[in-house]
Amino acid sequence: MTSTGTTAPIPDPEIDPKAEALAEDLAARLAKGDRRALARGITLIESTRADHRRAAAALVRRLHAAPRDAVRLGLSGTPGVGKSTFIESFGVRLADQGRKIAVLAVDPSSSRNGGSILGDKTRMEHLSRHPNAFIRPSPSGATLGGVARRTREAILLCEAAGFDLVIVETVGVGQSETMVADMTDIFLLLLAPAGGDELQGVKRGIMEICDMIVVNKADGDLKATAQRTRADYAGALHLLRKRGQDPEGFPKAIAVSALEEDGLEKAWEEILTLDAFRRENGIRDHKRRQQAVTWFRAEVEERLLRRFRRTPEVAAIWPALEQSVGEGDTAPQIAAAQALAAFGLTGDET
Amino acid sequence: MTSTGTTAPIPDPEIDPKAEALAEDLAARLAKGDRRALARGITLIESTRADHRRAAAALVRRLHAAPRDAVRLGLSGTPGVGKSTFIESFGVRLADQGRKIAVLAVDPSSSRNGGSILGDKTRMEHLSRHPNAFIRPSPSGATLGGVARRTREAILLCEAAGFDLVIVETVGVGQSETMVADMTDIFLLLLAPAGGDELQGVKRGIMEICDMIVVNKADGDLKATAQRTRADYAGALHLLRKRGQDPEGFPKAIAVSALEEDGLEKAWEEILTLDAFRRENGIRDHKRRQQAVTWFRAEVEERLLRRFRRTPEVAAIWPALEQSVGEGDTAPQIAAAQALAAFGLTGDET
Fold first, then answer.
1. Is Transferase included in the keywords of this UniProt record (chains A, B) (predicted)?
2. Which candidate among A226, A289, B2, B16 keeps its CA 20 to 30 Å from the CA of A337?
3. Chain B residues within an 8 Å CB radius of A18
């Protein structure tokens, strides 16, 4: 290769006519807001079958040029803060106003357990039956990287199907919050009222990536506590963050009661204010472009590793290598060099 | 390939006579406890030069059969808990007793900044000058995965050089704690005394991986607070953990004063008790074998990605792909497929 980078020819991926036809059909139906096409498209995206993967890739390729004007909202909250109740009340309210709401769940534990215990539709009973809403549970049985790819692609599909708001919610375990923040425009952290100046163990890293803290359960006996908690976090956010780019007052903390549907309209107004500001100033698009590059890199890594592991010569020796390393007979580095050699990559500089 | 896994031939990595000769020499000097050979070996491990990497690989290959009887101790603590003072007092005490102590620092921020602001030798003045001690700052300018590999290999070198205790310390930002726990036998979390029942924002995940919490600064005005903090965490550990494998009372919380050198002997005794128990019951070796498999997988991923990015056909189009994705002209998935095609892997099922 003598090319200098920008002038190098970019090879085209292979084309499968059958996959293209299916993708064409789904894309057309998505453009009309067909929810069954949306569900079918997400199923393709989550599938590991080769023909499904080709069709999913063809579909996502088509959607690159589709409108992408939804607000992508990340939402995190540990169990017990009333996340489902919040999404239900918040979502139904907006859906009643004629907005189309999609909720995509990201549960890293379902990667291990093969699915969450309670179905997402059970958790959000009214929203799941609302004609303007679409709820999709977390893809199961995948690595965190796999969940990321599927969720990113599902967001594209929801946008292509005309949804105005795509909520990506996560339970906030491990890296899932960063992952969700990396694929959304605005990131909300939902908290429960906490007594005194208790810190609820909120990780500093999460405070730094969130755009708004929503203290839920500001009702009944907890109302005053919720307001105090809100004030505490408003102070903490103020101390932690110095972002010249955002409008005055952001990141901010608000208190709501999902149960009494109090403060939900204000939460939505704040989201719209921040979103409008960022759109007008090109911040949203800049952020999305950066996210696309991150996605590109993650996509390359994930595909490369999958192809590697599926290469027959690698797959043939992999169990023996793991066993030999696990029994202490082969050093991990030597086994790694052998695995790479089976893939056709030799030399210690691997 | 028709092989069935265990019967497949395992190819040998290539041999470079010059690298082998250097590795041979270093391995012989390490076996005599030569500290300059240790420093030189770690420098090879941290180098990105191809000949250095070959020599490092040859060295690590040789050390696989070397004695590995050091206690590998992971230690985490956020800035301000007195981590350096603790390691200094604890290390000097043990070194004075004739034990050989190596301290390897893992600072994920140095991956970004190209090195920590204060040198580790300044932080631990007496220990760094002690004839029985060896201190190595965090490798800089590498990814977290790169830091993991280098630190794992540095542990092997320290053990080959006859060190009895290898402390791997980290500031506990992001994933570095899990990484350190994944390469050590025993994991300690160092904390400062906290007023009331304040939680110090200690992440639940860290509580779950640590074998002992050490509350430092149990001296002067803070002595009573430290004892209360210790009791709080002992309770929390008790609630969180149910490990039938460890001896009664573990994981446990103790209070020490690194400044007044109080409780350090007890800390060491607890570490030895746990280590002896785990050795006798095969738990340590089982854990190390599992860690070796994890290391093997990480090693494969890191090498594969490095080889991929360094492949001329990939490197030639990579900047153009990132730019095109960043400008929204190419979908991340399409760009990923193109990058993989440049590596010789085609088809949408990539």
1. yes
2. B2
3. none
**Nearest-by-Cβ selection for B13 from A50, A332, A334:** A334
- Whether ipTM exceeds 0.90: no
In order, the DSSP letters of A4-58 are -STTS--PPPP--HHHHHHHHHHHHHHHTT-HHHHHHHHHHHH---HHHHHHHHH
Split at pLDDT 50, 70, 90, the class of B61 is confident
Distances in Å between the alpha carbon of B275 and those of B104, B165, B264, B287?
20, 11, 16, 12
Distances (CA, A) of B136 to A107, A130, B11, B155, B298: 39, 60, 35, 11, 23
The pLDDT, as a whole number, for residue B71 is 97
Burial A110-144 (b: 16+ CB within 10 A, else e): bbeeeebeeebeebbeebbebebbbbbbbbbebee
pLDDT, tens digit (0-9, with 9 covering 90-100), for B260-283 = 999 999 999 999 999 999 999 999
Q: Set out the domains of chain B in order of their start, with CATH numbers.
A: 14-65 (1.20.5), 67-281 (3.40.50.300), 294-349 (no CATH)
In the predicted structure, residue A41 carries a pLDDT above the cut 70: yes
Closest C-alpha among A293, A235, A170, A183 to residue B325: A293
Q: If pLDDT is split at 50, 70 and 90, which confidence band does A5 have?
A: very low
Predicted structure pTM score = 0.76
pLDDT of residue B323: 95
pLDDT in tens, A168-178: 999 866 678 88
Can you read off the two tokens belonging to residue B249? 């009372």
**A5 touches B: beta carbon within 8 Å:** yes
